[in-house]
Amino acid sequence: MRRALLTGSAATAVVVGTLTPALAQTDERRCSPTRENVPVCSTDGSVATATFLDPTVTVTGARHVGLGQRGYVGPFAELHATRHAPISVGASSNVQDNVLLDARGGSGIRVGDRVILAHGSSVRGSASVGIESSPLPPQVAGTVDTLEGSVFLSFGSEVDGATVEIDSGVSALARVAPGVTLPSGFLVLPGKNVTTDAEASDPALGKVRYLTQADVAFNEAVIHVNESLARAYTELYREDPGAVHGVNLDPGHTEFNPDADLPSFAGDEQARPDSRNRVIGDVDLADTYDRFTQRTGERIAIRADEGEPFVVGHVDEMDDDVVFHALEHTDVHVGDDVRYGEGAIVHGGGRVVVEGQPEEQTVVGDRVRLGDGSVVFRSTIGDGARIGDRSGVVGTDLPAGTVVPPDTIVLNGEVFGAVEW
Question: Which keywords accompany this UniProt record (predicted)?
């Protein structure tokens, strides 16, 4: 059962602007996130079709922003549009924690249906993601059975003034540079900086690979989860507007996370709707609330509304823009005296070690140092390890004391290469 809801301040995202009739008439399914349309857009929409924006989302030029139905916009995301540089986001797309959509200085950003903008990713300038398409290369058309049309921009990736076509993707800490088109059927490899159309469409040049059936299946699962979160958060808000603020409940009522839970601090389960950060759901923190607040910065999202539980030891220091999240049916365990750099991402997910055996969960040991903009996903990080600024550790059991230099990708236990931009 959902626990008793605790009320707080009225739910409002930071919004500047009013509705533009021209935008509303372009597509009747679109909603502009003006003050009357947050955190549920549109405010009187049905639970089945409404888009939910976390109250911490920042929107400028709101009348020049159009959001499709069944979307989820996560904590501390930013959308910046102007009259001459609008932003549109299609149906069943999600804009996750600390994502940046900044059309200022360009002619606008268009994001299509079923696009995943994962934690810490960014789209800048004049850009198109998931709008155009081209024929799939034979290597994809002959091996991928079903394509529903989707795009995945992974953790810390960037699309800067570029075109990313339907049925493609950009891996963690990778980039598509201005003027480049990433065609359908290709995925940019982790950390790579794609600067030409040739690099975007020729795996032999070492920047991209072909899309696989596993990529498609992963996208489908993520899209379903975020559609479910849009519905569940809308229900939670309508039941109690204060429950979507600060330290508070996850919404529950989904097949992957059925129960609504409160975070606990030093064993004390509590809600703090006025907290400057978002700590959501079954998060067990070793620190008291006061100590945690003293040790942490701003725009922090620790969101156990999909995978759970999160067990977090005593925090040494946590800088701004840190994100915790986990895939459904997975958890995160973090040790004591960990230092989190600005924009660090810790994301739970199962890692297959022995075929047929239970997957290894994501664990970060004691006294670990996570650099600014670093990413940990589906990995075990040994005690005392140091991960450099803008480095990623994915699918790896990293031994205790290991030092990962800045701008380095460690993938499946091996150094994959540099973050090139």
Answer: Signal, Transferase
Predicted pLDDT of residue 27: 47
Q: Can you tell me which residue has the tokens 């989904």?
A: 254
Domains, the chain, ordered by start: 14-219 (2.160.10.10), 246-418 (2.160.10.10)
Nearby residues of 214 by Cβ (< 8 Å), 6 or more positions away: none
How far is the C-alpha of 306 from the C-alpha of 327, rounded, in Å? 6
Q: What's at 17, amino acid-wise?
A: G
Report whether 309 contacts 288 (CB < 8 A). Answer: no
Tell me the CA end-to-end span of the chain in Å, nearest whole number: 48
pTM, 2 dp: 0.93
Strand-pair category, 301-304 with 268-269: unpaired
Residue 96 CA to residue 151 CA, distance in Å, equals 14
Is 110:85 a contact under the CB 8 Å cutoff?
A: no
**Cα–Cα dist 89/224, whole Å:** 17
Distance CA 290, CA 296 (A): 10
Query: Which DSSP string corresponds to 27-87?
Result: -TT-B---GGG-SEESTT--TTT-EEE-TT-EEESGGGEEE-TT-EE-TT-EEE-BTTB-E
- Distance CA(330)–CA(308), nearest Å, equals 6
Give 248-306 pLDDT, tens digit per residue. Answer: 999 999 999 999 999 999 999 999 999 999 999 999 999 999 999 999 999 999 999 99
Measured distance CA(307)–CA(322) in Å, rounded: 17
Q: What is the pLDDT of residue 29?
A: 75
Those residues with Cβ within 8 angstroms of residue 367's Cβ, 6 or more apart along the chain or in another chain? 316, 335, 336, 337, 338, 383, 384
285 is written with which tokens?
């923190």
